[in-house]
Amino acid sequence: MAVLDDLSGFEFEDVMEDVFRNLGYENVRQADRTADEGRDVIMEEVVDGQRRAIIVECKHTDAVGRPVVQKLHSAIATFDFEGPKQGIVVTTGRFTNPAQEYAERLQQNVDPHPIELLDGEDLREIADEIGLDLYNGRIEILCDETLRPYDPAAAVDAPVKEAFHDIENIEATDLPAPRSEATFRPVVAVTADTNAVFETSVGVIHRINERTRFAVHADRGHPQVADDDVATLVTENLHVTVDLDTNRFGEVFDEVKEHRFGQTQTEYKEWAVERLQQHHTTTVTYTGDNNVTYNKTCEPNRSDISVQSIKPVYLPEVRHTTDLKEYTYPYEYYATGPSRVTAEDGIHRCVHCDMNGVDETYTYCPNCGAIACDSHTKTERLKQKPVCTGCAVTERFALKTKYFYDEDNLEAFREEYTDMPIHKKAMENKLLAGGSVVATLLVVVGLLVISGVI
To answer: Which burial class, exposed, middle or buried, applies to 71 when counting CB atoms under 10 A from its CB (0-12, 13-18, 19+)?
Structure first.
């Protein structure tokens, strides 16, 4: 615990807030640092069905005397809470004998506001009990829980095979086994409450009372808020996590990677508070007592935002790559058992123009392995099978372009075309042939009219 000695008083409060949250206390939050009135951390717990407030004073000093304990006792008495209240003084150092005697006397006299004392030795034991590692005064995130990277009731490559189902002209037997990789990416699920009231001389002009849940991609580098669908995937499956055993998963996937959490729990908490401050900041227009219109920027204080939980977990990112002749098709998604959120779909994408989306029609070209959109898919003349414009050999017959798999197919059709009767050759361009028939009929009708037959 010696690393705590290098902290400032405010940094020590941040660490203790995280420690108490990990111990299971609720509504853990810091008092306003500009005027804490002897209250550094405020939290709650439910004992025998009754909610109790706990006021914590953090002292990052070598020794804590009786005046600190007395001051906290007074602060507890004035703290506005409907229900029982008690206090805790926590220090990295030790308590003097008078401080210990004062706290013991409160306990013996069954004082309505008892105070518990936690010194550096107590902190060390608490950290060991709850499995917290401290370095540079921060709680490092050590996590061995992950969402399940695949559905145990189905094959690992079942999602990629399902993705190929609506591709035209491809059968399951055409699909080779894909290469499958699982990357376990760190995420943090955050739950926070924001409670703030903004008043002016005319009264309350804005109020915030909101609980926010979101997930944060927690790789090294700047944290990124996950998309809503990814956040839902994470938060709705936190109750079904499994142990992250890379050796066991290595028997299922061709490659397994594990990324470490990039920041400490304290840093993620601070980042979440800053983000929520920005999210809830708004400008309110109101009319003053003098009938003048004013604009006021309402930004919640840090003390208005209470991070209720920071839950670290690994989110599996599964990537399948399928090789079909000349092309490779990636399919990537975040997974938790049978549920998944697609991150990249290289299957529903035309290789020639990058048109993409599952609502379009795509056709597999057995000649080169391309998956192409309608604009880049033609019918091979000799075999009457799909062929893409990227690999097809072309030649014009009856003034119309025909598509072939290769030169051999083209040569075979040339011979077939040579032996065709003229009316069949004409039908190689049905539009032209139909137009010729119509034109001929019009000429005949015209001649008949001129000759007076009709």
So the answer is: middle
Element (H, E) at 307: strand 305-324
Distance of CA 368 to the CA centre of its chain: 37
Q: What angle do CA 154, 155, 157 make, to 5 degrees?
A: 130
Cβ–Cβ under 8 Å, residues 315 and 236: no
Provide φ and ψ at 143, rounded to 5°: -135, 135
Helix axes 97-108, 66-78, angle to 10 degrees: 40
Distances (CA, A) of 227 to 111, 219, 419: 50, 15, 63
State how far the Cα of 355 lies from the Cα of 316, in Å rounded to an integer: 28
Measure the N-to-C terminal CA separation of the chain; round to a whole number of Å: 113
pLDDT tens per residue across all 454 residues of the chain: 335 566 677 778 888 888 888 888 998 888 765 444 556 899 999 988 899 999 999 988 889 999 999 999 999 999 999 999 999 999 988 999 999 999 999 999 999 999 999 988 888 788 777 766 554 445 667 788 999 999 999 999 999 999 999 999 998 888 999 999 999 999 999 999 999 999 998 999 999 999 999 999 998 777 899 999 999 999 999 999 999 999 999 999 999 999 988 887 778 888 999 999 999 999 999 998 889 999 999 999 988 888 888 889 999 999 999 999 999 999 999 999 999 999 999 999 999 998 998 889 999 999 999 999 999 999 999 999 999 999 999 999 988 899 999 999 999 999 988 888 887 887 776 654 444 445 555 655 555 567 665 6
**β-strands 63-64, 94-95: how paired?**
parallel
* Angle of helix 120-130 versus helix 9-22 axis, rounded to 10: 40
E strand residue ranges, 140-227: 145-146, 179-200, 203-217, 224-225
Which amino acid type is present at position 36?
A: D
